[in-house]
Structure formats: C-alpha cells, structure tokens
Write a structure and sequence with these properties.
Elements: H1 10-19, H2 24-42, E1 45-48, H3 53-61, E2 72-76, H4 103-110, E3 114-119, H5 147-154, E4 160-165, H6 171-177, E5 180-183, E6 203-208, H7 211-222, E7 235-240, H8 249-264, E8 268-273, H9 275-296, H10 298-304, H11 310-320, H12 324-345, E9 349-354, H13 374-379, E10 383-390, E11 396-402, H14 408-424
Parallel strand pairs: 2-3, 2-4, 7-8, 7-9
Antiparallel strand pairs: 1-3, 4-6, 5-6, 5-10, 9-11, 10-11
Helix pairs in contact: 5-6, 7-14, 9-11, 9-12
Length: about 425
C-alpha cells in the first residue's frame, strides 16, 4: 500500500482551511487522488460520488466556522446518500438512487464534510465478505461488516467514515485495520435512512485515524454537551475470565501490559470476571439478532431467498425458529444485566478489553469472530476502539473501552492517553 495521505488531525486540516493555508477543494482533491491510487488493491469503495469542484467550492465560499469543512468522508453502503443507490452488499436490493441523505449524512454535510462515496459492506451487515482487503496486509481480512469504511480510513485515504454495528461490525474492522472507532450508544442517534437488521441492536458508528479525531468529530456531530465532561474515571475494569481462551498470543500479551499501563495513567484497575453473564449475553444477542433479522428482512427471504448468500439465508432461517417468548425473555435478561453493569460501573468506571481475538486472520473468505463485542452491543453501550498496538508482522491490535451512555468523554480521555502509550510500545510477538 502507498503511504497515507491523511497524516494530520482532522482539527488541524479544518484549521488549515480556516486560516487559508489550504482550501476545502484541495483537501477533497487530495483524498480523491489517494483513493484512486489505492483502490485497485484496497477495493474499499462501491461507488464514488459525483461531487464536483463547483460543489466543494461552495464550502470554500461559506464563511461560517464549519467544524468539518473540507473533510472527506466515506459512507457505509447501508446508509442512504442522495443520488446514489444503497445496495447493502446484496444483489437483491434496488439499484434506484436514494432520494435523500440519511440524517447522519445530512448532519455531516451541514458541518462541512464532503461525501467521497459509498464504502463496501458485507451483505445486510452480516457475514458475507466483500472484496475489500486489509490496508496493512492485503492477504488478510479487514473484518466486517464496516470493512470498506475501516480500510479506507486505515489506508489514510479519508480521515473519516461512517459505519454501523449490530454484533461486531465496527469494533472488529477498526481493530484489524488499525483505526479508532466509536460505536454510539444504542438509541442515541436517529437510524432513519439506514438499512437495518435488528432494531434492538443496530447502532451508528464513526471511524477515524486517532481517538483525538474521534472525539473531535463526536463533539461536532452530537455536540460536546451530549457527554458529561469529566477528568479520568475512578476505575478501569480489565475484562478477564474464560473468554481469554479465544485470544491469540499477541492479544494475550497486550492484555498483560494493561494493568501497568493503566496504573501509569493514574487509573486503579480491577479484573472483571463476568463469565456467567457474558456467556448468557452472547447467547441472548444471537437470539435477538436472528429473531429480529428474520422479520426485518422477511420480504427478501420470501421473494429472493435463492439470491441471498448462505450466511444471511441461514440467519433468517434460524430466526424463524425462535419464538416470541424466547425473544422477550432475552430482552428481559438484557435489561437486568444492563442494570447490574450500571451498578458495577457506578457512573465513574469503564471496562477495558480486547477489541478482537487477535490480529486480522489471513484470508478473505471470512471476517473474523464478533464474540468479544456481542455482550456490549446487546447492552447498547458506547464503545471506543483504541488503535496503536502492533504485532511484529505489523498487524494492528485494538483495545475496546466500554462505558455508560452519557460518559463518552471518559472513554475519549482514557483512549487518547492509552493510544499514545500503545503507539510507543514495542510490537508483540505473534
């Protein structure tokens, strides 16, 4: 892969436009050139937008202090962009162009961002891999389903991309592609104009190069008042227990470094052994996702099942066998676990754990396991993925920080400091 074009912060890029040292037109043109250069190998994009130089020139002419002026963004192809089809990674969807932007896209445009195009997704945000390759090792998976968005940011072609998550669709690609990521708390943003799979689980997410960029975009996108401003939280619970058996050696080694790293940040840390709850949460997540997916995508299954991938077809078939009572019971257990975890975190703590089982697996026929993000996605909690760690082969490893809704600033504060340490730490043996 070529060297990344995006090597300065989003805030600094916007400042350079505001001060006149560059223009939005130049930033957008630079990003498009980088995309064109890397796309033959990366294959992160489904379709490029028809944005013209004249369109971008209107941003340069706008005198308002727009916080994302001239920032290029990739939009996962589950999210509507006016004038472009939303194919959701599936042959059964309509090729008709969306008539309006999804609210999240509209919001980014209002802040001065420029949509470069639609990025690759797995089919309906599930497991069927797309053509996208990992920007750090093209023979390895970029993860799924926000694979195109993570790869585009990880390659340094755009500084920002939109993704979504139902199980591990943003957490895992961020970890594999070496980007920062934010899974927004469930229900915190409008999901209109987004092809869904499970109403109880679907969440919007952001991908950027660093946690500092993530924080900057979050505060612009939602407003800094959306988060409770604070210093460092009181305690970090390091997720432990039998799930460690899923981890590859470099991720185990990275977790072994965390207690001393957290202590260096001034954080008291404790082990969180939540084995019984985590296993139940993972099972309940699978139940809820299959049940709701079977109903959300019932039309496609009834009319075009032979054209669906085996992965999504099997999920929908499984969902049809789940009873309403089993679905309801899973939701009740979710609510109880959410209350229990709220008591454990007590508004002033967070959870630290691996974002994936290890570095991106070799091969493009699968996207890796979402096992480590299922529990937190079921609970609808905000998650920040922290980049910076690497294996000796140069493959990224991500750490996820999990907190309570409204405490996102805690995650950003710890995440920025943790990222700085991870980037300076020696690589981990594979």
């Amino acid at each position: 892969m070529n060297a990344p074009v995006v090597d300065v912060s989003i805030e600094d890029q916007v400042r350079s436009v505001r001060t006149g040292s560059t223009t939005a037109t130049e930033l957008v043109s630079r990003a498009r050139t980088a995309i064109d250069a890397q796309e033959p190998v990366l294959q992160a994009w489904v379709q490029m937008s028809s944005t013209t130089a004249e369109d971008v020139a209107t941003i340069d002419a706008d005198r308002r202090d727009l916080p994302l002026r001239g920032i290029s963004v990739g939009v996962k192809d589950l999210i509507d962009v006016a004038g472009m089809p939303t194919r959701a990674g599936s042959p059964v969807t309509s090729a008709a162009a969306a008539v309006a932007d999804a609210p999240c896209v509209e919001r980014l445009r209002s802040l001065g961002a420029v949509v470069q195009g639609k990025t690759v997704t797995t089919e309906f945000g599930y497991f069927r891999p797309g053509p996208t390759r990992n920007p750090h090792a093209p023979e390895h998976t970029p993860g799924g389903s926000s694979s195109g968005s993570a790869a585009a940011v990880g390659a340094g072609t755009v500084p920002l991309a939109l993704g979504t998550q139902t199980a591990g669709s943003l957490t895992r690609p961020a970890s594999y592609c070496g980007t920062a990521g934010l899974v927004l708390a469930h229900g915190s943003t409008e999901m209109a104009g987004i092809v869904g799979l499970s109403d109880s689980l679907d969440s919007l997410g952001l991908l950027t190069r660093t946690v500092a960029d993530l924080r900057y975009v979050h505060d612009a996108f939602l407003g800094s008042a959306a988060a409770v401003q604070s210093g460092l939280p009181e305690c970090a619970f390091v997720w432990g227990g039998s799930y460690l058996g899923y981890l590859d050696p470099p991720m185990i080694a990275l977790l072994g470094r965390l207690p001393s790293v957290l202590a260096g940040l001034g954080l008291h840390s404790e082990m969180l052994d939540w084995d019984d709850h985590v296993q139940t949460l993972a099972e309940d997540h699978a139940t809820i996702m299959a049940f709701e997916a079977a109903r959300t995508r019932a039309r496609e299954f009834e009319r075009q099942r032979d054209d669906l991938s085996p992965q999504i077809r099997d999920l929908l078939q499984q969902g049809q066998t789940i009873s309403v009572s089993d679905h309801t019971a899973a939701l009740i257990r979710r609510d109880r676990s959410r209350e229990l975890l709220g008591e454990i975190l007590d508004g002033s703590s967070l959870i630290v754990g691996p974002a994936a089982t290890g570095p991106a697996p070799k091969g493009l026929s699968a996207t890796g396991s979402p096992i480590l993000s299922r529990p937190w996605q079921l609970l609808g909690l905000p998650v920040v993925i922290v980049p910076g760690a690497r294996t000796t082969a140069g493959l990224p490893l991500g750490i996820q920080l999990v907190g309570l809704p409204g405490r996102e600033d805690d995650l950003f504060e710890v995440g920025e400091r943790l990222e700085a340490i991870l980037r300076e730490s020696p690589p981990l043996d594979e």
